[in-house]
Amino acid sequence: MSSGLLRLTNKTRNVVGQAFYYKPIQMLNTSSNSSRNASSFSTTFVFQIVSPKGKGGFGLAFTLAPSNQLPGAAAGHFLGLFNPANDNKSSNHIFAVEFDTVNGFNENADSEGNHVGININSVFSKLVRAAAYSETDHPDRDRELMLDSGERIQAWIEYDGATKHVNVTIGPVGERRPSRPLITNYDVDLSEVVKDNMYYAGFSSSTGEKVSSHYILGWSFSTEGEAPLLHYSRLPEAPISEKTSSPFRPSVIAIVASLCGVAAILFSALLFRAAYMKWPRFEALEDWEMDCPHRFRYQDLHTATKGFINSEIIGVGGFGAVYRGRLPTNGNDVAVKKISTPNSSQGLRGFTAEIESLGRLRHKNLVNLQGWCKRNNDLLLVYDFIPNGSLADLLFSRRNNFVLSWEQRFNIVKGIAAGLLYLHEEWEKVVIHRDVKSSNVLIDAEMNGRLGDFGLARLYDHGTTSHTTKIVGTIGYLAPELTRTGQASTSSDVYAFGILLLEVACGRKPVETSDFILTDFVVESHQMGRLLGAADPKLNSAFVIKEMEVVLGLGLLCSHPNPKTRPTMREVIRYLNWEDKLPVIDDLGSSDSLSRSNRFMGAVSIEMITNSIDAGR
């Protein structure tokens, strides 16, 4: 490896090259109460296969293996994964996605070269697709992609442990990610393949009588949502000496190139003159757009939402309406947020803040931003469609007499806690959400909580402090110190999370009337010795007592009026996982806390309340 460039093989015959990440990853989801399930994962990488023209071989494979060494693996068609003795043995416990450049070597092998395949314990692929990608302007069409062309190619592989589906997408570097995978929803139960909980992820490659140099230029991998984006500008280049030499003399090349160049310029000028008045002018990309997710076509989003008609609205906030849509390119359901005040600087700030933060955040308990669109003053964000709506809807709606079970509630708050820990401590920057509340927690098909709406989020470097001074958020979730300093912090996010905990446990809103403040209600219940009496009556006492007690107690601790008393999100996780014992309620300053909401509300002027409600979404 040199300057970030990983070379698996050079142009030497019959060699094997393997490279695995040095730390194993957890491949079995041990958090499930059901039978063992394989963990979901997402990976993307850029590879380059440089071959003598018409003589290349044999390909490379993304690999999950129980060991970071595969001794005895053969070259050639075996891709450095198997050998004739162990091929097709279930004891291999290997999953691979192959990018093969050579035809199969017998009647049972892959029949065509230049293909992508799914391999389980064998060189013989379970599924093969000719290497191709869907065109940006014509998603229903496939364009062949030569894997050994010497060009940089990006691959995306996603596995969903819940549905047991794998998707594989490939495309040229520098173009948009194809909207349609090459391999879609192929059924693979990795829990039946993997041997141990901890597995190694990496790559394997080989040559035979035909040779190629196989390079990996960039790679990201995640078991916590979508893999981080790769920055194309930072990718290394293959050595210049790898470029295929030409049999023509330089003088001949120069003459031909000059003549072709003149002809191309004249032809392009004629085309440009003819089309200038007909073709739309595209906006130049701004700096913040360069590192952002996929840019959607406005027409696709307009079609998806049926022209943004009111009947497709699934939510409305301070920055705009959210529409349900179905993409015409692949039929996937999405949620499209359309900024309602496109001419306002606030709307633009919210739009760019959300792209810059959520666009690069990847965690299973955060809402996934698929992409964006900007057309003149129309600002649009495109998310995964989350089918079960918001936590607030499920807690407070009366539809079909639905009651969110305690098991589901406890799982949801643990998930949101994990998401906030990622924002506060585990990402490259500190992210303050500033609007944690039940209506911003969306519930996916597996009833997991996912925190969304990052329009108010602020980022700053670890080891520094936030410089925000404007009060934003939603009444009932605002930490008391915000009225004095206006300075949001991770601690103010923790306060809002504490209110969320009390909401989930009690089934009541933070502020229902001028006479009912949720924190006062819970503190009073505790002081009267009947803390469990604050639990949501709709549960009919169908809850685990120690879990209810820790959620109520932790809610009071997180929403303590003194920010220094509140725990960090890492400590919150430890309490919820029973790794640490929650401080006794008497140590929470409850006698002082009884008047916490009164002191808070008295400190907030009418103007502040109005501004906060306007900012809350």
UniProtKB/TrEMBL annotation:
Q: What is the enzyme's main class?
A: transferase
**Protein kinase domain location:** 308-585
Q: Where does ATP bind?
A: 338
In the UniProt record, does the keyword ATP-binding occur?
yes
The places in or outside the cell where this protein is found are: Cell membrane
The keyword Transmembrane helix belongs to this UniProt entry's keyword annotation? yes
Q: Which UniProt keywords apply?
A: ATP-binding, Cell membrane, Kinase, Lectin, Membrane, Nucleotide-binding, Receptor, Serine/threonine-protein kinase, Signal, Transferase, Transmembrane, Transmembrane helix
Per the record, what are the reactions this protein catalyses?
L-threonyl-[protein] + ATP = O-phospho-L-threonyl-[protein] + ADP + H(+); L-seryl-[protein] + ATP = O-phospho-L-seryl-[protein] + ADP + H(+)
Give the E.C. number(s): 2.7.11.1
PROSITE patterns for this protein: PROTEIN_KINASE_ATP (PS00107), PROTEIN_KINASE_DOM (PS50011), PROTEIN_KINASE_ST (PS00108)
Q: Where are the transmembrane segments?
A: 252-272
* Single annotated GO MF: protein serine/threonine kinase activity
Q: Which InterPro entries match?
A: ConA-like_dom_sf, Kinase-like_dom_sf, L-type_Lectin-RKs, Legume_lectin_dom, Prot_kinase_dom, Protein_kinase_ATP_BS, Ser/Thr_kinase_AS
* Membrane topology (UniProt): Single-pass type I membrane protein
Q: What is this protein called?
A: non-specific serine/threonine protein kinase
